[in-house]
Amino acid sequence: MYLCHVTQLPDDGARGFDTGGAGQATIFLLRRGDQVRAWVDSCPHHGTPLPWRRDAYLDASGQHVVCAAHGALFDPLTGVCTLGPCLGDSLTPVALRIDDDGGLHLAAGEDDQLIKKKIQETP
């Protein structure tokens, strides 16, 4: 599944994607320079969506992914919680494929059913 071109992600920013037509983001992509990560949009603490508004995945400093429900902070490249009630837990990664032209796609096998399962497995 095609998501977007890498240039459509803000550098040092994030953007959510509704991969299954649920009406809200189920995953988000995060870009740091030439590095891109994809995560399930679900906090490992309670399974709630992370942003307080559309695409608001980062804290005010832009340095950490933040859970709007309880303020947990996550390292943007490793997904590990560095502060908050889920300290040491991690965001759930989603495999990406980047084509030669910079297009970002869900990797083979990362379909909406698998993403839903990953969300349900979050405590």
Automatic annotation (TrEMBL):
Q: Where is the Rieske domain?
A: 1-105
Pfam families linked to this entry:
Rieske
- The entry's keywords: 2Fe-2S, Iron, Iron-sulfur, Metal-binding
Q: Which domain of life is it from?
A: Bacteria
Output the Gene3D superfamilies linked to this UniProt entry.
Rieske [2Fe-2S] iron-sulphur domain
InterPro entries, per database record: Rieske_2Fe-2S, Rieske_2Fe-2S_sf
One MF term in GO for this entry? metal ion binding
The name this protein goes by in its record: (2Fe-2S)-binding protein
State the species of origin: Herbaspirillum aquaticum
